[in-house]
Amino acid sequence: MEDSPRPLDPALLERILVQATTGPSDYNLQPWRFLVVRDDRNRRRLRAAAWNRPEITRAPAVVIVLGYHFPVRSHLDPMLEQAVAEGHCSPAKAAEIRGRAVAALGRIVDHELWATRSAMLAASRLMLAADSLGVASTMLEGFDADTLRREFGIPDDHSTCAVIALGHEAEPDSTPGRFGLDEVCYSEHFGQPWRA
Amino acid sequence: MEDSPRPLDPALLERILVQATTGPSDYNLQPWRFLVVRDDRNRRRLRAAAWNRPEITRAPAVVIVLGYHFPVRSHLDPMLEQAVAEGHCSPAKAAEIRGRAVAALGRIVDHELWATRSAMLAASRLMLAADSLGVASTMLEGFDADTLRREFGIPDDHSTCAVIALGHEAEPDSTPGRFGLDEVCYSEHFGQPWRA
Hints:
The structure is a homodimer.
Chain A: H1 10-20, E1 32-37, H2 40-48, H3 55-58, E2 61-68, H4 71-74, H5 76-85, H6 91-106, H7 111-132, E3 137-139, H8 145-152, E4 158-166, H9 181-184, E5 185-187
Antiparallel strand pairs in A: 1-2, 2-4, 3-4
């Protein structure tokens, strides 16, 4: 039974995924990708790649959030064409944005890091969207990226950024506390204590 | 006048920052750090490091979101002590978590990438918290990390992940559209079209 939990309403899942795509990204290149795993056998393969965590087979849907390294090569023109078609910018403005984007993104050294930033922003939106729609979510701490890549056909130019189990009851968190702002926040200069 | 916008209510800013810290992270190590810049002169220095974007001096507060690479060295014990003190876990459970965390985090190859994942999750929460509290936010696309590091004393073991301007009216976005799920979402296997 554990491996066949009650399915998540597909329309609800789709709403969560759409909300995950609404965040900002460099030049709106949207480098986040979502690989949704619902099939029982695939969730068992996924579980084997994620420290055998039982949440994965208990959850009706698991989303592997990927960061695509090179949308500037494949998605800049479609994005700008969409922006023009939807009346958000003129063709001249689109050409100007295109030039700036190609220049700026040509300076990126670590494409994995660049893509991961946007992918994690989307992962966060996905979890908060799930929460707002009454669907529990858990971000899994550990997974073997190479195994995921092999099992699910993820190419090298896509990084595996996060694995999020959706729809099961969350495990009780044994360390739910958070540090105060005195520990994680600075004013004006690194190391200078936070003061509101 | 542009360089001295109406200040953001400090209590509101603090609420936004606290909400930014509430997300999950590997072993609850909370590698996000927030450097809050409000001083006029400092916002001008920040603007110079971020393509001279006018949002920065128009905004009463700008948050540089950092990812700290090595909280396992400095914050694992304090986090576990806090969890025990707050009654979330027993000392024995804390010792067990400690062992697993040291082993798991010892396997990390790219500490910058690891820290950036959590920092961006926090950056996303920060923006959504601002939004829910009626404070506009803009994530700036480009900044010179080395200049930020030098100007604000950010050490090498902290990555500059995002710069978020808070409190000003958002610029009209010239490319607000997003790709549909057919472009960014897959079912069961990479490349397999999404179907709800």
